Structures are given as C-alpha cells and as structure tokens.
C-alpha cells in the first residue's frame, strides 16, 4: 500500500472509533441521567409518604435557604424511613424538633478575636479637621 492509501485508511478508522466513542458516551450519559431521575423520584415519594404537607413545605423552605443542610436532612429522613424508624407521617412540630437536634449536632462554635494592638494604631484621634 502506498502512503496516501494507508493514511486514508487510518483517518477512516479514527473517524469510526470516534463515532463509536461518542455514541457510547451519549448512551452512558442518558442511562446515568435516567438513573438519577429514578433515584430522585424515589426520594420524593418516600418523603411524601413520611412527611405531611406542612412538614414538606418547611423542608422545601429549608432546601431553598440552606441547600446543603436540606439535602442532609432529606437523606437522614429517607434513611430513617428505609430502616423503619419512622412510624406514620411526621408533622411540622416533629420535623422542627428533628431540625433542632441536627442543628445542635452540627453547630460549630465560633470565636471572635479582637486584636487591640492593631486597633490602637488605627486611632481616629490623629486626624485633624
């Protein structure tokens, strides 16, 4: 075979492999998106079974304000429901008490340090009007 023919075959094979890869990649993405959608639907159905309407509204409000904490509480509720630790629907008051216990567990103690030396150097007395 001559060089141009060999190069043409290589380009053809490369194009074929790239199209196969792109096709598989698209299929994998679609399958993954479908799996994620199914998991989200399952989570929503479990939360609907476990929480009454007012508690669900409060959880949605929490997810809007603090998404990471909302997802953590949702995961906790789903896990509790799957283990059978929740009997019946939780009301808003039960959810609030659960949120308070989560807050106590995850609350970080913050300290404020005040550097008096720097404040002493930044005195307003030095300014003349």
UniProtKB/TrEMBL annotation:
One of its GO terms (cellular component) is nucleus. InterPro entries: PDCD5-like, PDCD5-like_sf. Keywords: Coiled coil. One of its GO terms (molecular function) is DNA binding. SUPFAM superfamilies: Double-stranded DNA-binding domain (SSF46950). Residues 14-49 form a coiled coil. PANTHER family: PROGRAMMED CELL DEATH PROTEIN 5. Belongs to the PDCD5 family. This is Programmed cell death protein 5. The lineage of its organism: Eukaryota, Metazoa, Ecdysozoa, Arthropoda, Hexapoda. The gene is LOC106743423.
